[in-house]
Design a protein that fits this description.
heterodimer; A: mainly alpha; ABC transporter involved in vitamin B12 uptake, BtuC; 1% strand; B: mainly alpha; 71% helix; 3% strand; globular
Chain lengths: 423, 304
């Protein structure tokens, strides 16, 4: 029965699912209020009704019905019914250069996300934070997954990036009480924001040398300790730097990190990291992880490879930190503590090592789960760790590990069987 | 000079906590080559167990048993009970993952720690408990240096524990099995020493020690808090690694060193610089001595 159901759906290409999703968000956008009114829901459920379900169990059927009417049925019906059309569209897109096709798909996906999040600000925030979590997770996966080390310093790099970029934007584009008048025209701000983020990432990458230089001389667990020490050093240093707010933190960053900006950075990050991991250096990195001595004898410059990968990961953590600071528009040092570390590590190991796909899954599921279980308050912190322990016991490498992101495979039309081997 | 001696005693006391806790990390790391990230929270649970036992015994027997006897009883009972927490962590979080990548076990440890913290908050609520004083505090003044008998007790008990453990590891058969296991845990099980006995034992000893550290901590800083294990635990973890892989002596020494740094930094710098300077010193030490104080050389095949 279930198998048959999946076989029926197996002909739906990605384009079909996207169209279905688009229909669903359109329905929610125009009819959401009406449907929720008739289902006795107080307002449009924000996160697929999970919050309402946990707060008021009596409304569980209504919330489920809402999901069924608004999301599941339209997506399935539109996806399945228009599958032939979408398959020919997918075939057309397949003939285009892959970058163009990818951009078209991403734009469509962004359209759905934008409409879905447009309902209220809470959704926008959840989506932004989830995308930042994706950047963090994918970049930590370079170090912990592809390189096979155990780094604990990601929140530290994030803090460095967040503070560096916040300082720049506050100094250059904002009139605030900390740094006084803006040095440049604030209208330039949104355009120079990528540069600011890039600089934030670079500063984070440079700071990662403090960890990389001592710890990559020997193989072993010292990266874990040195990176942990680095995390505490960064936190403590920021707390003691009164010029950037000390323990009170920095606030009133300009609102540059809008949804499209975060989305573009996330896509860029995934694309670049994917290219990195499939490049010669990425393969060398895997070789270093699997057998350093062998890699060394095969002309891999292990130290350089490890340093580059580590700095690369730190760079993206810095970028994510910069985005994070401009999304929340407030940072303080205690944000980047052990709790954040546990969160990022959980995402990486839940999703799967050595897999960008897995990292995306991990980041999305842990952050959405974290938001969805919010009404349970404390029990949330029992359930999420339990899930993680179970995942670790049954799939020690994470849910989707050692799988490469294959964009072409994801986007291909589904109406004909894939030709086996060769063209 | 008085000021220096005063700080020395404080540092010895503060370092004792680090030393005793970090031994737990060090043993697990030495025998199983795994990070026990739940250890800080095992310390927390141990402290709460000690608190429960102490309150119970004080209520029952304080009329006719002297305080020091109750203290010894509390220590023994708490050690016994807390060692089961260690065994629990091993069985639930580490045994199923023995063949898995080492980092996965670290993650389960971390998660079990979070469950302990949250579980504590759920069961006991947000109220703060205060550890009952088991020994009546008496202050002494020797040549301008003030200290209490509690401080002396903390230092002495920690030293006794560490010496006892050292003797156990070096002299007893169990200790020998542990050392063998840390040397090679592929071959030793073939010699008839079961890893399923040695691993829980290692965790149990670590947890027992941590719980005693908790009781002592409760004597010095009575306010209990579900998150008390985080700061102390992670610092003790750093100390354990600084001491060198699986070296009890090294872990204890590094614990005391950390205590000294943390107590003496405020003499020169503002006290907010404590973490910054402590960890910078650790970073420098590890840069020049990556194996820690007494670490054995690592096999290059090691991986997380």
């Amino acid at each position: 029965m279930i198998k048959k159901f999946f076989r029926i759906l197996s002909v739906v290409p990605l384009a079909g699912w996207l169209l279905g999703g688009f229909t669903a968000v359109l329905i929610e956008y125009y009819l959401g209020d009406l449907i929720s009114y008739y289902l006795y829901l107080p307002k449009v459920p924000v996160l697929f009704g999970t919050l309402i379900m946990l707060k008021e169990p009596l409304l569980i059927p209504s919330a489920l019905a809402y999901n069924l009417i608004v999301f599941i049925l339209p997506i399935l019906l539109v996806g399945r019914l228009l599958a032939p059309v979408m398959n020919s569209l997918a075939a057309m897109l397949e003939k285009m250069p892959i970058w163009l096709a990818t951009i078209i798909y991403l734009a469509a996906f962004y359209g759905i996300l934008h409409m879905w999040a447009g309902i209220n600000d809470y959704r926008v925030l959840v989506v932004k934070l989830t995308m930042i979590a994706i950047i963090l997770t994918v970049s930590l996966n370079i170090i912990n997954g592809y390189m096979g080390e155990f780094s604990c310093s990601h929140p530290g790099f994030m803090a460095v990036g967040a503070y560096a970029s916040s300082t720049l934007t506050l100094l250059l584009f904002a009139n605030d009480k900390m740094f006084g008048e803006a040095l440049l025209n604030p209208a330039l701000g949104p355009w120079l924001f990528p540069v600011v983020l890039f600089i934030g990432g670079l500063v984070a990458a440079l700071s990662s040398l403090i960890v990389a230089i001592p710890s990559f001389r020997t193989r072993g667990d010292y990266l874990a300790i040195i990176s942990l020490a680095f995390l505490f050093i960064v936190k403590s240093a920021i707390e003691n730097l009164e010029i950037i707010g000390g323990p009170r933190g920095m606030s009133s960053q300009p609102n540059y990190a809008t949804l499209p900006v975060v989305f573009i950075w996330m896509s860029l990050c995934i694309w670049i990291i994917h290219n990195f991991t499939t490049s010669v250096m990425g393969k060398a990195l895997n070789a270093v992880r699997d057998n350093e001595a062998a890699a060394n004898s095969m002309t891999v410059n292990t130290r350089k490879t490890k340093m580059t990968a580590f700095m690369f990961g730190a760079f993206w953590a810095g970028v994510a930190g910069g985005l994070f600071a401009h999304v929340l528009r407030y940072v303080n040092p205690s944000t980047f503590g052990l709790q954040k570390l546990a969160e990022i590590l959980a995402m990486v190991y839940f999703g799967g090592l050595n897999s960008i796909y897995g990292s995306i899954v991990g980041a999305v599921s842990i952050s959405v789960l974290g938001e969805a279980l919010r009404p349970l308050q404390l029990f949330k912190w029992i359930i999420i760790p339990l899930i993680l322990i179970l995942v670790m016991i049954f799939r020690p490498n994470g849910l989707i590990s050692f799988t490469e992101l294959n964009v072409k495979e994801v986007m291909r039309p589904r109406n004909k069987e894939r030709s086996e081997g060769g063209e | 000079m008085d000021y220096f001696l005063q700080n020395l005693i404080n540092a010895l006391q503060w370092g004792s906590f680090y030393a005793v806790i970090s031994i737990g990390y060090s043993m697990v790391y030495g025998v199983l080559m795994l990070f026990n990230f739940a250890h800080g929270d095992i310390f927390m649970v141990g402290t709460y167990i000690g608190f429960g036992i102490a309150t119970l015994l004080l209520a029952l027997f304080s009329a006719f048993i002297p305080g020091w006897m109750i203290f010894i009883l509390v220590v023994i009972i708490t050690m016994f009970l807390a060692s089961f927490i260690g065994v629990f962590v091993e069985v639930v979080g580490y045994r199923p993952l023995r063949g898995a990548p080492r980092a996965s076990a670290a993650i389960t440890g971390l998660m079990i720690g979070i469950i302990f913290e949250t579980g504590n908050l759920i069961i006991l609520g947000a109220q703060r408990f205060s550890f009952p004083p088991l020994i009546k505090s008496v202050s002494y003044n020797v040549g301008g240096v003030y200290f209490t008998n509690v401080k002396v007790l903390i230092i002495v008990v920690s030293l006794i524990l560490m010496l006892a453990l050292h003797t156990f590891i070096k002299k007893s058969k169990w200790g020998m099995a542990m050392r063998a296991m840390s040397y090679d845990f592929m071959a030793v099980p073939l010699m008839g020493v079961s890893i399923n006995v040695i691993a829980p034992l290692t965790f149990a000893i670590g947890a027992g020690l941590a719980s005693v550290a908790g009781i002592l901590y409760g004597q010095a800083y009575p306010v209990l808090d579900p998150y008390m294990g985080i700061q102390l635990g992670w610092k003790a973890f750093v100390a354990a690694i600084l001491g060198g892989r699986g070296s009890i002596m090294g872990a204890a020494l590094a614990g005391y060193l950390l205590g000294f740094i943390e107590m003496f930094v405020p003499m020169v710098f503002p006290s907010t610089f404590r973490d910054l300077i402590a960890y910078s010193i650790i970073l420098v030490i590890l840069t020049f001595r990556p194996r820690g104080f007494f670490g054995m050389t690592h096999s290059t095949q090691l991986r997380l």
